[in-house]
Amino acid sequence: MERFQYKEAGPQLLLQAFLQRIVNSGGRIEREYGLGRGRTDLLVVWPQDDGNGQRPDASQKFVVECKVLHKGLDRTVGVEQTVAYMDRCGAEAGHLVVFDRREGRSWDEKLFRLRRKSAKGDEIEVWGM
């Protein structure tokens, strides 16, 4: 993995595989393949059910932005970027997943969940893996 420029690829593919199992019952995952195009890494789209088994056109959308930890969580950029992606695609929730690829760290140190507010007040779930 170290020889590739796109360091998020391996962890992101594992996350996609996990999420795919969840959305197989009716949702879908849209992925960004082109870097630098101003799109989220993953967009989970879940159709709304009206209670009668019907799925109208409305869908719930969840942005999932992936980052590799660089020199600590405070220096890993992503909250404002995730909010911008939420605005662009009309998502109701945003998640920033930070992959800690440093060696010698236990899972207890790598795994966490917290909420961060953006400059404009949106809350983003930040997950450590």
What key attributes describe this structure?
single chain, 129 residues, alpha/beta, Trna Endonuclease, Chain: A, domain 1, 23% helix, 6-stranded mixed β-sheet, 6 strands
Short description:
This protein is an alpha/beta fold. Helices cover 23% and strands 30% of the residues.
Describe this structure in words.
This protein is an alpha/beta fold. The chain has a single domain (9-128), classed as Trna Endonuclease, Chain: A, domain 1 (3-Layer(aba) Sandwich), CATH 3.40.1350. Helices cover 23% and strands 30% of the residues. It has helices at 9-23, 79-89, 107-110, and strands spanning 28-31, 42-47, 59-68, 93-99, 112-117, 123-128. It has a six-stranded mixed sheet, sandwiched between helices. Strand 3, helix 2 (79-89) and strand 4 (93-99) form a beta-alpha-beta unit. It is globular. The model has no long low-confidence stretch (mean pLDDT 80).
Structural class: alpha/beta
**pLDDT averaged over residues:** 80
Helix content: 10-25%
CATH arch. level architecture: 3-Layer(aba) Sandwich
Q: What is the CATH class?
A: Alpha Beta
Strand order of the largest sheet: 1-2-3-4-6-5
* Overall domain count: 1
Classify the beta-strand content into a percent band.
25-35%
Give the beta-strand count.
Answer: 6
The Cα radius of gyration reads 16 Å
